[in-house]
Amino acid sequence: MNKSNRVRWWTYLLLGLAVFACLFPLYWMFVVATTDTATATKLPPEIVPGGNFFHLAGLVFTTVPFVRSILNSLIVAGTIGIGHAVLCSLAGFAFAKLRFRGRNVLFLSVVLTMTVPTQLAVIPQYMIISSLGWVDTLQAIILPGLGLGSAFGIFWMRQHLGATISDELLQAARIDGATTWQIFWRIAFPLVRPAAFVIGLLGFVTAWNDFLWPFIVLKSPEMYTAQIAIKALQNSFHIDLGLAMSGSFLATLPLLVLFVFVGRRMVAGIMDGAFKG
């Protein structure tokens, strides 16, 4: 093997440190989820898991409707993830391959929305949701979530579609009598499906971890998402770290399972977009 292509020992060291930095917070969360508050705040801290995890997990399910909260989060995050994949692909296709007046101005406006903090939209957004009578409903989270954070997805898909699909291919499809929708759904979207999958997965994770907006609009326990259910495990005067971390660990498990099954596909989609962009 050529010495210039040989991986140095310090490369493995840096990769090992990076993996440790990513995994240690999850491990520490599990350690605290198996102990009580006194043990979690000891100095030096305990680094070996205790034996109270199943007891604390049982308290999580009896204190709040946690199963219902997980299902609510799956409905919200799944809908938003699928919506981001399709809507961002549609918008990216329009900006990349369709010619219409004001296209560049509209695209610039979409990109500029990434510089606006999402917190600025809370008050007018709540006023709209309240006027529609959607407070304390899942659609109050789903419909705004389809728009929030999608500017990056539109930008990603516009760049990816522009680099992946040639204009000659689309012109040939039009000559054969294909409509714009048929061109998108049967030609463009299948070619950029890996990139759309990445956008959908990012939207799913963002919606799953969202706390601020669901905390504002959801009132009844049966409508809580997972993050609001974790907040409900705490009270104003005392925080049981073991109970809170048990709920956090249980809410993280679905994401860990998801990444186990789709991690390779996500990396492939990112690399595909990187090389073709």
From TrEMBL:
Q: Which domain of life is it from?
A: Bacteria
Keywords annotated in UniProt? Cell membrane, Membrane, Transmembrane, Transmembrane helix, Transport
Q: Name one Pfam family in it.
A: BPD_transp_1
**ABC transmembrane type-1 domain mapped to chain residues:** 70-262
Please indicate if the UniProt record lists Metal-binding as a keyword: no
**TM region positions:** 12-30, 70-93, 105-126, 138-157, 241-262
Membrane topology designation: Multi-pass membrane protein
Q: Which GO terms describe its biological process?
A: transmembrane transport
UniProt keyword Transmembrane helix, yes or no: yes
GO CC list = plasma membrane
Which compartments is it annotated to reside in? Cell membrane
Where does the protein principally reside?
membrane
Which family is it part of? Belongs to the binding-protein-dependent transport system permease family.
Q: What is this protein called?
A: Carbohydrate ABC transporter permease
Instruction: Identify the species of origin.
Output: Nonomuraea turkmeniaca
